[in-house]
């Protein structure tokens, strides 16, 4: 039985409010992602600068894998949540609004990039490799380079812990990349661009 006009109007208002609130959450999480990148680059650069200048012991570089790893975990958590929100908006909210309004062409941004999800090479170049270099390969290479300075048990323990943290980050990166690059089924089209960069 079709909705009466007042009921349809109320449902439309609720769905639009939900859509607006979730898009605002995407924007907020995207801003947090950019902040995490700035924190990671600034803090790691400052630590490296102090160590290379001789103002502090070289061992302070052992902090970088942990700092970078924490930033990466938070970044990827935001990315996963953004991806989930995008999928929900495209598979639940938009179809419900389309049924109520009788127009299937509305609010299609969440599904606009679904073709890109199946093109692994552009996705890897645009999103995969930069994040891998920033959060995984750079800190891991630093850990490997610091092996020659490990002359105490606590340094070896810190290096081992650093490699473990980077292993966790690499696993999170790989899991998210597979999720973004998975072939899209009809109606399931969250955008990897949103999840990585938070395009509004």
Labels describing this entry:
mainly alpha, 77% helix, 200 residues, 0% strand
Structure commentary:
- It is built from six helices and no strands.
- The chain has 200 residues and is mainly α.
- Mean pLDDT is 78; it is low at 185-193.
- It has helices at 5-53, 63-101, 114-117, 120-146, 153-181, 192-197.
What's the gist of this structure?
This protein is mainly alpha-helical and 200 residues long.
* Class derived from helix and strand content: mainly alpha
Radius of gyration: 22 Å
Q: Could you state the oligomeric state of the chains shown? A: single chain
Outline: elongated
Q: How many runs of DSSP E, i.e. beta strands?
A: 0
Strand content: under 5%
Q: How many H/I helical runs?
A: 6
User: Roughly how many Å apart are the termini?
Assistant: 36 Å
Q: List segments where confidence is low: pLDDT < 50 over at least 5 consecutive residues.
A: 185-193
* Rounded mean pLDDT score: 78
Query: Can you summarize the main beta sheet?
Result: none
Report the helical percentage.
over 70%
Pattern of helices and strands: HHHHHH
């Amino acid at each position: 039985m079709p909705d009466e006009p007042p009921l349809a109007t109320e449902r439309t208002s609720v769905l639009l409010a939900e859509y607006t609130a979730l898009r605002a959450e995407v924007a907020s999480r995207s801003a947090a992602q950019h902040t995490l990148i700035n924190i990671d680059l600034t803090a790691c650069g400052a630590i490296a600068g102090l160590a290379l200048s001789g103002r502090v012991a070289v061992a302070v570089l052992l902090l970088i894998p942990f700092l970078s790893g924490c930033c990466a975990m938070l970044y990827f958590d935001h990315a996963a949540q953004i991806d989930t929100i995008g999928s929900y908006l495209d598979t639940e909210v938009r179809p419900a609004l389309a049924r109520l309004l009788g127009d299937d062409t509305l609010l299609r941004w969440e599904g606009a990039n679904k073709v890109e999800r199946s093109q692994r090479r552009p996705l890897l170049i645009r999103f995969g490799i930069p994040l891998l270099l920033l959060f995984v390969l750079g800190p891991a290479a630093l850990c490997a380079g610091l092996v020659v300075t490990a002359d105490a048990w606590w340094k070896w323990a810190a290096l081992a812990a650093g490699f473990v943290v980077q292993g966790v980050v690499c696993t999170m990166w790989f899991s998210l990349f597979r999720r973004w690059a998975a072939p899209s089924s009809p109606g399931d089209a969250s955008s990897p661009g949103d999840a990585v960069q938070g395009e509004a």
